[in-house]
Amino acid sequence: ASVAVTIGFQFFAASQYNSFSWWMTGTILLLGSGIMLMSVSRRAAYATILSAALVIPLYWSVMTVSASQNVNLPTGYEGQSRQAQRSGEERPTVNQELVDYLQANTQTTNYMVAAPSSQQGAELVLATGRPVLYMGGFAGQDEVVDAAGLAEMVANGELRYVLYGGSRNNQQGISTWLQSSCAVVPDFSAVNMRGQQINGPRFPSPDDGGEQNQAMSLYLCR
Q: Which of 7, 56, 206, 215 has a CA 20 to 30 Å removed from the CA of 97?
């Protein structure tokens, strides 16, 4: 009875996401087969009944891996209706000029660039597969590395470029070190991660991608 109620809810949930398919009714056949097996083997019956409750969740898990797009905050499979809506949306692209420049000038360094957080650096990782140092962790709140640590990495040849500025989580020590020890790359004095060169500072808003679209400067440190 518990499995039957569970499968009923699964049908309901799948229909809410417009993902109900004819093959899902096979779970009812599995449930019925399990009930009939009760008189032959209770162990086999229970296994069949429980497997019936796992079919739709397994489908949802597979779709999460195979059908979901690369997004800044990955989510579970959202169903056919939501996926269709997302496919019609214009997806922003990474700043290709910045990617090409960093790729050409960082082949001998461990990190392609250091960024304030994953909000600004994740797109670079997805575009290149190269390591990016998130100085502030996921959202910029964690002190993963300070100015002394960055200076040591530069001295050791592990890091050459730092993308910084326009962040609400800037660390004063890092800002001071960048101003005194590094130089802004003229071609990338005001860039964002989704577009190209922009004029003046830009701050996050709900309509333009938030943290990822803030204007930052690319620093060369030697």
A: 206
